[in-house]
Amino acid sequence: xxxxxxQGFAHWVVPIIAVVIIGGIGAYxxxxxxxxxxxxxxxxxxxxxxxxxxxxxxxxxxxVGLNSSKYLVVDGQYGPKTRDYVKLWQGxxxxxxxxxxxxxxxxxxCNAHKGPPPAWWTVYSVNAGC
Length: 130
Known about the structure:
This protein is an all-alpha fold. 66% of the residues lie in helices and 0% in strands. The longest helix is centred in the first third of the chain and has 39 residues, at 2-40. The chain is globular.
């Protein structure tokens, strides 16, 4: 009877451990792949995609706080409103106000936070490579 119980235990535990390990490896590979991408590039008006969504989400946290009526739409399109929010953020943080998110702006955005951010900000910062 004990041998059957042990086989039953192994029958369930081994696949669970395998799924956890494989899932962790996949999350690491895909997470770091995307993270390296955003901070490795410069974004400006006309850019689009997931990294622009990350920029918009980070700007919402920094500039808008809880006033949801002023949120940027997180649509992945770097339009005039995103550019204006980037310029405002750059000016508030002592950077040249060119509206371009390049290495200098990425560094400041990623290092600007004190204290634990909300979970939704964490998603954008991890995706961006902060």
